[in-house]
Design a protein that fits this description.
Two copies of one chain form a homodimer. The first copy, chain A, is of the alpha/beta class. Chain A has 15 helices and 19 strands. Chain A has three domains: 221 residues, 3-Layer(bba) Sandwich (FAD/NAD(P)-binding domain), CATH 3.50.50.60; 97 residues; 78 residues, no CATH class.
Chain lengths: 447, 447
């Protein structure tokens, strides 16, 4: 294996380029869009992202973590906003751990620049993948501006071309299990600018949530003092994008549900009717590889809903695991490495897809539910007393490298235990008492 | 609605052409393959089909049932062959009802000829659909021989282009839920010729099954005294196509599992290594329609495994239901008709997909199980005594027009009742006694 073709120069493609460059490969990256460092390719269409622990692990493995850290904002807690504008702060962990907010566009630029530092990495923008011959790892790209086309031979093709992957499209013609499932919610980005003096209008170290059960808004801090807000709502039905037809509908809706946000959004009307409404799709497939020639990495293999903030981190982890497997198994038998990658990652892709859907319910609904908040308090208490025995699901996902599928199974066990604990008499009063602790330990031993 | 474009001139496309022609539409049918009446387009790759009651209903609605009946062979029972060559005959119904075996190729030719009798139907072969503009119902086809292309405008496009539909491919770019799932079994066709005198080598009025749990062979009679046999087997693993590498593997395998078939297959070796090994895919999607412009009909909307013999019948029923909806709602508001079609059919597509998988287990496994045979006997007995209260699932699917989803729900209720009945003491002796009958009636009232 000497020549690697990477289809897609987004976040995962550019990180993978660095990993492969470090292995001494000749890496050609072909990206459909123009170079984002010269063009605003992301205008008004991206949810802000967060880097979690496993994201950092993968960035560190490629030696690019420092370059990325400079452009992130740490986020330590959720802050919920109720209809009356009251806020509640819910820390993500008992020991002030943080996830890190970052703009997709800035991060992509940073990673491309890191990749380009390697003389053996060649970036080609404005190239659309129109054909992949799987058995020979040969790709054909057309150049959008000139209309010309180029045929690229390589030893391996990595498809990092996202949820609507052209590489995957080719794989679908063979024995390939695939599903794409749209949730009923769409989203729209709404930017919160900073105050006139440049200071942030809300606590930038919190992820802000306006949970309204069937819909929600959230906001994540940017470096400039502003926030990227995102409204998630069904595309049709009672509270839906479909129902907001004019400025009056919009303002009535915000007045009723997000009144405290209105003063922070002086250009709400303009933004709402200008910004694109996007849908949310979950993609699952199997296998992610074709012989010793092709592998899907990132969203092309596992597009998920954004409610755990793990889509990018899962893709970065794919790169890290793939690189670890090459370290362990060598580059002599690429087919064996790709099979091992498939074996290791498909289950985790499915697990984080499930977890992300579950977290949507948590974010839009449960964070405003007293028994959910009580459960978080109990879990924190137990974790403090028995850190070796109890690590909440959220912490496993965001603050460790524990495989998603293991975290998910442990989380289901926690659910069963907490259901019994929350049913104890007077649990509101005795939640940090000895009886509860004993009960949890007994159930842990039994389950 | 005046101009209808039908993409795909297979079984469902040609029946739909007749239905639309009868409504006075100008119908253009574009088919990727050459005209099957002039070319052998199905050589060695098709399972024989059966027409069931709902298939006949749909053929009758288009006035083509007589033309089809002439080329069918009635099948009244399953005949199982065990490893020692012993056979058991299991009738499909208590009153000698039949399903009808037919060759896919012959049926396709017949239906195309029926469609072509209408002056307002135009058939175009060798035309591959390369693009569909959904919002305007505009299709682009390339002509395989000349390389030229044609753009076709119509009021409505019907995608009857099968499991790998090009029309559906276009719909997938929007909010469209889709899955394709391969089962582990592949299949290979093996033809049983007639005796030298032209007589059939087995009872032609039976569907022959060699159930071997993890794999199976079946045979369905043709008009010429021969049978189309089909071997279903995992593509990899213990008993699998992968394991049969040479003639010796093949003969050892047949000797061990299908010894009674060997004398009927003098050219087994040739056929086995010549005939194509095909995979089996289940396709589900939603919605099946795009506004008032496009609808998927048949396998493009619901490709299923062939074990209930209902794939074609489900597609024919789509045509019949669509035509009924036009009758009822008129042609003024096509969007409303397509929405109603979607509402009526997606649930039934999913139901027959589930039922077909279930029937695979039944065919390869249960038909050789004594308690399954006992259950069939009890069900027949109860049906005879109370025909208004008990119609076995198989009869609902094959011998009525009851919607698949209703049949499926009723079948699940039967399962629950029969589980309790089969657990009764001495059920082997008292299966046709009063106690069992009473039990069934009580459970029926309760469930």
């Amino acid at each position: 294996m000497k020549h690697v073709t990477i289809v897609g120069g987004g976040l995962v493609g550019s990180l993978l380029a660095v990993y492969m460059a470090r292995r001494g490969m000749v890496v050609n990256v072909y990206e459909r869009r123009p170079d984002p460092r010269e063009n605003d390719v992301y205008g008004g269409r991206s949810i802000n992202l967060v880097v979690s622990h496993r994201g950092w692990t993968a960035l560190r493995g490629a030696g690019v973590d420092q370059a990325v850290r400079e452009i992130t904002v740490p986020v330590h807690a959720r802050m919920t906003h109720d209809r009356e504008g009251h806020t509640t702060r819910l820390p993500y962990s008992i020991d002030n751990k943080a996830i890190h907010s970052v703009s997709r566009g800035e991060l992509n630029c940073r990673l491309l620049t890191e990749a380009e530092k390697w003389p053996n990495v060649h970036l080609h923008f404005d190239h659309r993948c129109v054909d992949v011959h799987l058995d020979t790892a040969t790709c054909t790209f057309t150049h959008d501006r000139s209309g010309g086309s180029v045929v690229v031979n390589g030893d391996v093709v990595f498809g990092t071309d996202g949820a609507f992957s052209a590489v995957r499209q080719e794989m679908m013609k063979g024995r390939f299990n695939f599903s794409q499932e749209y949730i009923e919610h769409d989203y729209k980005e709404i930017a919160f600018g900073p105050n006139p003096d440049g200071s942030p209008r809300m606590d930038p170290q919190c992820l802000h949530i306006w949970p309204r059960q069937k819909f929600m808004m959230m906001g994540l801090a940017n470096l400039d003092g502003g926030f990227t807000g995102t409204l998630f709502m069904p595309h049709a039905g009672e509270h839906s994008f479909e129902r907001i037809k004019d400025e009056r509908d919009l303002m009535d809706f915000f007045q009723a549900h997000f009144a405290d946000a209105i003063p922070m959004l002086p250009d709400l009307k303009e933004q709402y009717f200008r910004n694109h409404q996007s849908s949310l799709v979950i993609v699952r497939c199997d296998p992610w590889v074709h012989k010793d020639k092709v592998a899907l990495v990132g969203d092309s293999a596992h597009a998920i809903v954004p409610f755990y903030g793990e889509g990018m981190n899962a893709g970065f982890e794919d790169c890290r695991v793939l690189n670890d497997l090459f370290d362990r198994m060598g580059e002599g038998d690429v087919g064996r490495v790709l099979d091992a990658y498939n074996e290791a990652r498909v289950v985790n892709g499915n697990a984080i897809a499930d977890l992300s859907l579950r977290n949507f319910v948590e974010m839009r609904d449960l964070v405003a539910d007293p028994s959910f908040i009580l459960r978080k308090k109990i879990e924190g208490h137990i974790q403090r007393r028995h850190p070796d025995k109890w690590l909440p699901l959220y912490s496993q996902v965001k603050f460790t490298d524990i495989p998603y599928v293991d975290a998910w199974n442990e989380g289901l066990r926690h659910d069963r235990i907490m259901e019994e604990v929350l049913a104890m008499p007077n649990i509101e009063e005795q939640w940090d008492g000895e009886a509860v602790e004993k009960m949890v330990l007994t159930l842990l031993d039994r389950a």
